[in-house]
From TrEMBL:
GO terms for molecular function: hydrolase activity. Keywords: Glycoprotein, Signal, Vacuole. It comes from the Eukaryota. The keyword Glycoprotein applies. Residues 1-23 form the signal peptide. Pfam families: SSL_N, Str_synth. This is Strictosidine synthase conserved region domain-containing protein. One of its GO terms (cellular component) is vacuole. Belongs to the strictosidine synthase family.
Amino acid sequence: MRLQPHFAAAVAAFVATAWVVHMRSDVRKSGEDVEGMQDWQYEGVSIDGGVGPESFAFDPRGEGPYTGISDGRIIKWQRSENRWLNFSVTSLQRNEECGGAYEEHAKKEHVCGRPLGLCFSMVSNELYIADAYNGLVVVGPNGGTPSRLISTLDVQEEKEPLAFSNGLDVDQRTGAVYFTTSSSKYQRRNYISLILSRDKSGRLMKYEPETEQLSIVLNNLSFANGVALSKDGDYILIIETTTCRVLRYWLETPKAGTLEVFAEVPGFPDNIKLSPRGGFWVGIYSRREKFIEWILSYPWIGKVLLSLPLDITKAYSYLAKLKRSSGMAIRLSEDGYILEVVEDKKWNKGRSISEVEERDGILWVGSIDAPFVSKYNIPVSKQNNK
Ligand SMILES: *[C@@H]1O[C@H](CO)[C@@H](O)[C@H](O)[C@H]1NC(C)=O
Ligand SMILES: CC(=O)N[C@H]1CO[C@H](CO)[C@@H](O)[C@@H]1O
């Protein structure tokens, strides 16, 4: 669609005005910020040299968590030393410029790597990582240079150089790795455009280490993101960020091969993880505010915004900061019902949430824009309350 410049400018002005009006109508009282969370013990575990711990993994000995950050490193939390250790990286092209100011990291992701979803295989002891630019990366149990890079390009029919790999889980019975590619048109650093364009080129992929076979399980997903296998491996849940849905794809049982909607959530979901207390934790990037709802309900607004000569991701993060729209964590039951909601504006400082991993009574909370990992001790009363 070619637009007259004055028309585009008018729409931009209109959208900006609508946003400001919406912001004013949505001011919250500060007292509501930590309601119900007074007895949650909090600790912010800061990270040096990068931001955005996006996902967590624990190794077969239960050590960690491990997480990937904005400068392309995978770091490991060494509990006994109370500090992060450098574990690995996801790119073989890294140079001395990987590092420096956090604000510059997104520009260098295609060179330095951007590790997102990660999970250890208890079958092989290796760490599998979905990297936003390098596809599927495999690292040995002692870290260091990746032992294998499995490019997703071979099976992307279009042979496009973009395969934004994102969420990942391992079937611990067989060692098979399931992971998503969010889009074959947009890169990670342009995720706001990915949402506005309503792109449907996301996929669920499967890698079988024994045969080294890589295959497409599902096509045509709207911003495919986190994935989580059920406890017994009967089905896999897949996050669709743009549609705010959790999809369920049956792998076994007579329903094998069926895809259905598992849950709809009140915000843009990112990663999903099994909870040891049952069900699944979903990290919500931000609430689905009325304003963004309005934009998404009219496809032409998204098209106009994308046609404007501005960096839409930057514009969005600027407005989101003004508005302090914050993330939350939701625990879904195995039937897709909401069991628990954690929304913390005080400690998390209104940042987005990418993943929530529950382990031994602790919630490890990651955020794509935070220079720390949030760690919450779940109150005993809640721990018993499944
Ligand atoms: C990890 O790597 C970063 C970047 O190369 C470096 O600045 C930091 O000192 C290293 N940390 C440790 C604990 O070795
Ligand atoms: C309905 C639809 O969008 N179908 C597409 C699903 O994905 C395949 C492969 O990428 C396309 O060829 C279809 O057009």
